[in-house]
Amino acid sequence: MIQIGYVLSGLIAAAILFLGARFWSAPAAASAAFGIAGSPPPSTGLTAWLSVKGTRDIASGLFVILLMTNGPPRLLGEFMLVASLIAFGDMATVLRSGGSRALAFGMHGLTGLVIVATGACLILGAP
Q: Transmembrane stretches, by residue range (predicted)?
């Protein structure tokens, strides 16, 4: 179980780092793919806010890597459970904005469930 948790954690960290970098390098495309209905056209202010989100995503991915390399599996698992709130919050934001239900549940909700399952693998498999 621990190995599965670590593999999933690594994949999640890589995905979060990719998404964070995308909000820096292609903010309009990243914003459109997020799923919020009625997103404004790119502007200096919006691009700045999207860079803030990208920075936080990159830091979140690095936190996962830090815990994978230096922390016990249980701590990584607990972190993942807490981090799942980000994905579920994103899902709620997309739904609240009138965005795509399929995207809200299919991307953000499913991501949250995978993160919960990853945390459970690490916690249940920890000595």
A: 75-95, 102-126
